Amino acid sequence: MASWEKQFLYSRPTEPRPELAREPQPGVACESCGKEEVARYPVANHQGARIITRCQACLHIVSVQRPGRDDMWPPFRAVAYDWEPSLAERRSRDERLD
């Protein structure tokens, strides 16, 4: 399967209850409590799909980032998710802001 297909074609889940994998971030310490129990994982919040790095001990958010192509988040996202807007779309946005 081509690499782009893996991002847009999904098979039916085999597990009855999918679980989110939290990636530990070795060598990263929490700014708030100082512990190194920091993990990176995807979330959906008021800003849209984001990847956060959060302390698992005190729940302090270390960083919030837009998901990259390798993050595979959000699932089932549109093919044009990362594309730049067209000139016509940028123009219409600018006119609405005036």
Describe this structure as you would to a colleague:
The chain is 17% helix and 23% strand. The protein is α+β, with helices and mostly antiparallel strands and 98 residues long. A hairpin with a 5-residue loop joins β3 and β4. It has a four-stranded antiparallel β-sheet, with no helix packed on it. It is built from two helices and four strands. It has one domain (3-8, 20-97). It has helices at residues 3-8, 87-97, and strands at residues 23-24, 38-45, 48-55, 61-65. The radius of gyration is 18 Å and the shape is flat.
In short:
This protein is of the alpha+beta class and 98 residues long.
Question: How many domains in all?
Answer: 1
Strand order of the largest sheet: 1-2-3-4
| Strand elements, count | 4
Largest sheet: 4 strands, antiparallel
Order of helices and strands: HEEEEH
The fraction of residues assigned to DSSP E strands is 15-25%
- Rg from Cα: 18 Å
On the 0 to 100 scale, the average pLDDT is 82
* Unreliable spans: none
- Classify the secondary structure makeup into a structural class: alpha+beta
Distance between the termini: 46 Å
Topology of this structure?
Layout: H1 3-8, E1 23-24, E2 38-45, E3 48-55, E4 61-65, H2 87-97
Antiparallel strand pairs: 1-2, 2-3, 3-4
Keywords:
98 residues, alpha+beta, four-stranded antiparallel sheet, 23% strand, flat
